[in-house]
Amino acid sequence: MSQTATMTGTAPATATTEPSGPRPKPFFTPKRIIIYTTLVFFSLYFLFPLYVMVVTSFKTMPEIRFGNIFALPSQVTFDAWIKAWTSACTGLTCEGLAPGFWNSVKITIPSTIISIFIAAVNGYALVNWRFKGSEVFFAILIFGSFVPYQVFLYPLVIITRELGIFGTLQAVIVVHTIFGMPLLTLIFRNYFASLPVELFKAARVDGAGFWRIFFEIMLPMSLPIFVVALILQVTGIWNDFLFGVVFAGTQNYPMTVQLNNIVNSAQGTPEYNVNMAATVLTGLVPLIIYFVSGKLFVRGVAAGAVKG
Amino acid sequence: MQQSVSIRDLSLNFGNVKVLERLNLDIAQGEFIVLLGPSGCGKSTLLNCIAGLLDVSAGQIFINGKNVTWMEPKDRGIGMVFQSYALYPQMSVEKNLSFGLRVSGMKKDEIDRRVKRASEILQIEPLLQRKPANLSGGQRQRVAIGRALVRDVDVFLFDEPLSNLDAKLRSDLRVEIKRLHQRLKNTMIYVTHDQIEALTLADRIAIMKNGVIQQLADPHTIYNKPTNLYVAGFIGSPAMNFIEGDLRDGAFVAKDGTSIPVGSYAYLNGAGSGPAVLGIRPEHIFVGEAAQGMPYQADVEIEIVEPMGSETLAWTTIAGKPVTFRCSSDIDIHAGDKMRVGFDVARGSLFDAKSENRL
Ligand SMILES: Nc1ncnc2c1ncn2[C@@H]1O[C@H](COP(=O)(O)OP(=O)(O)OP(=O)(O)O)[C@@H](O)[C@H]1O
Ligand SMILES: [Mg+2]
């Protein structure tokens, strides 16, 4: 009896050497060190230019000319930002980036909505309402995404001219919608194909038609893929330069084109602080979209993970 | 009597693949028909054709005497329950149940009345406000049945409704479906590849293979008088024992020369002769005293014994073929025992070896 008592008494002492409970995870394993070193390296690699841009944009020109591009501004000034937004010269006019910003908004919002809507309907029809030749239609559409943009450029100029919309916002919107179609349709088609067909069949038996099933059954299940499409389209269209410069016409140049005009203007000394501020301003929208909808995206995926 | 569902020369091809070919099936009002067959034999395809979810390649479908071949699913008077439940994930149970009714533009109070009735029958009233994700498998399947129930249809189509559930739940819901059928008395067409489900639920079973109905009959006939070798082997677990041989001079002579008397066998069209297969179910082979008086008897050595609780399964060799038989678990039986077994071919089946059809 007393023997067993001493046995149990000594047990905790041996427990420290015997594996028991969760396995200890040392913080500095070679794997972790490699992962973190790589992550830190690449973060710096990408963040450093951003740092230089931001600090430069808050400096005055004399300070910039002084040469210390890594130094923090001795005196923070918002002048460059204000000038970039309201009065920097973008070609013939000197109204800053503001008009370009609004042009970009006017281009991006309709293009994104229209292209995503059409692509979603396309994908849905291709999966659930197969029609004669739907596979061929899809193949042609996908083939479209492999043809370089430049090939389409001249024909599209002629087409938009014939339609009488060349040099207008509508032209850019139409072009963005067309070029968004292959990839977006592919994305939506694959997403809808991954949903159980029986849901669609059940809705058919319940008597719902094409649009009813689309809006009441398919769309509510598709938040994650809509967010993906949204990120793709907003960043893609906002960052577009080529279609804007070709189709929009000088009045309607998007922000990217105006940014280019500010930065590349040949007259006078380059105002680095204004250039930097203008660049950050232009990149802000995709950045915000990414941060906001990135969260939504994760939530959408988590909500969709539980199949009903 | 008016047929509830009639299928006339129905064919369906996917491109070059012929899934159903000239299939005919008549289902009476209020009948519970089970389509039973191996995976890929076209059961779901047939059901989808009846539901109107697939366009048929040829043939006609009648429901309640009306030709519905070209009609939309919703106009056919059918309700369908799917294997994966197919509940609309973003809608509450109540919305799931009422979706079809709302689509048809029914009045609110009538919808409420029907949803209430269906949820009472299926005992899902406490769940009405939940989303499908928050239901157990059994509850989901009940909601799926409810969705067909509220539509007040004449014909219910079930596509393997229980195969995603665990064994216990499956047998519970099986009874519930049977009860539901007794209460509602509408026609039910039920697809499964579980033969227990088929035998317990069906008024008649249609055994399918490669898109062709092999036999359509009540469970008793299917089990005891299978129309061909395929049906005989497909139904029954453990499977029927088969012995190949020849029919000559009123006896069945097995390959190893053993002669088995077949005088008591009821032939379909007169006594057969020539190469044949004798089939006998494990529970129709008797052992010990019960074997006395059987037309065929043999002394055999028991090779393997599998106690199953309520009964015992034993393996031995008869006429040079491995054979299983069932006996009561009260009988003390061990591997290596020598025993007398016997059976009466009247309880078994004889098939033509070439055509594989019942003799
Ligand atoms: N959309 C389709 N395109 C081409 N072939 C198909 C299609 N759907 C089914 N088939 C084929 O038709 C045959 C019958 O399929 P079906 O789904 O009816 O089988 P099943 O009897 O329901 O099988 P299971 O028990 O596995 O559900 C299979 O061989 C299948 O490969
Ligand atoms: Mg199936």
TrEMBL record, chain A:
Keyword rRNA-binding found: no
InterPro entries: MetI-like (IPR000515), MetI-like_sf (IPR035906)
Record's compositionally biased regions (Low complexity): 1-17
Domain of life: Bacteria
The species this protein was found in: Devosia oryzisoli
UniProt-recorded name of the protein: Carbohydrate ABC transporter permease
Cellular component terms (Gene Ontology): plasma membrane
Domain ABC transmembrane type-1: 101-293
Pfam families, per database record: BPD_transp_1 (PF00528)
PROSITE patterns: ABC_TM1 (PS50928)
Membrane spanning stretches: 33-54, 107-127, 136-157, 163-188, 209-232, 274-292
Keywords, in A-Z order: Membrane, Transmembrane, Transmembrane helix, Transport
Subcellular location: Cell membrane
SUPFAM superfamilies: MetI-like (SSF161098)
Bilayer disposition of the protein: Multi-pass membrane protein
Region (Disordered) location: 1-24
Family, similarity comment: Belongs to the binding-protein-dependent transport system permease family.
GO biological process terms, semicolon-separated: transmembrane transport
TrEMBL record, chain B:
GO-annotated cellular components: ATP-binding cassette (ABC) transporter complex, substrate-binding subunit-containing
Location in the cell: Cell inner membrane
Keyword Nucleotide-binding recorded: yes
Keywords annotated in UniProt: ATP-binding, Nucleotide-binding, Transport
GO BP of this protein: carbohydrate transport
InterPro entries registered for this protein in UniProt: AAA+_ATPase, ABC_transporter-like_ATP-bd, ABC_transporter-like_CS, ABC_transpr_MalK-like, ABC_transpr_MalK/UgpC-like, Mo/tungstate-bd_C_term_dom, NA-bd_OB-fold, OB_MalK-like
GO MF annotation terms: ABC-type transporter activity; ATP binding; ATP hydrolysis activity
Domain ABC transporter: 5-235
SUPFAM superfamilies: MOP-like, P-loop containing nucleoside triphosphate hydrolases
Protein name per the record: ABC transporter ATP-binding protein
Source lineage: Bacteria, Pseudomonadati, Pseudomonadota, Alphaproteobacteria, Hyphomicrobiales
